[in-house]
Write the structure tokens for this entry.
Amino acid sequence: MTAVDNIASADVVTTQDLHKLAMALERPLDAIGSHVIGNMLHTSTAGRDLPSIAFMVARFRQLGLGLRSILSPDGAPTVRGARSGLPSFALGSSLDFHEPVTVGEPVRTTVQVMSERDVVGRTGRMRLEKLKYELLRHESESPAVTEIFTKGHRSGAVAARQPPRNQNDSTHWHAMGEPFTIDVVDCFLYCAAVWLPHRIHYDEPYARSEGHPGVLVPGPFQGSILAAAFAEIVGTDIFGWRLSYRHVGSMVAGQPSQLLTREVASPSRPTELHALLVGPDGAHQTTGVLTKLEPS
């Protein structure tokens, strides 16, 4: 594990940043009926709470400001201390939303490389990299948001792509809103809004050159859809909760998706909210779980 690295000096997320994010997310948020997060994005003013999904703006922008000189060849930001140079892709995240920060409040982000290891996955050999990000108020050492982010780097020839899993376990799942389609323009707008220069999310010829079936919808974009859905279910933004999501298949721009949700109760643990993004023919794309954080 590397030492903690301050990505950049203090930054602020403004109302203009949120309006750009709202434009990028408009199609899926309208489809699922997102009012809690949707209203926060559209009515934000200085001093009001930032929505949980705005963490992505601060994280990627500060990563770009602090580490622009070591962007990978594929456009993906690379953290000091991590090995770079190989094409990368997001595998999932776990985000603890401890407390909100406000629009215009100075924040800073730290990052730590937690682990790296080589594995053989469905698309061939890859290197798994786990990073820890923390969003802090400028003068505070207590994180407002903690993210454990996992991504893969291809370290060998790409094997024949296996079809996404389709488990057909529709029991107890409920469709939330209407199907939606995220296109390449939506992906480009999102990448611009959160300062994400990774080419597989807006450059189709490049994405195909890496073996992808087309432009891939960014993982944090999908995470934002799940966060908005969970906020709608609990009736407020998800500070005080943990959002974990994992990509089990590709969400390709231009293909329709549907959001499914369900509640899972167990005598031995707190109730969990589950969400599932499915693509054509019910192929699973991303799974998400929301759990209440234990008081510190």
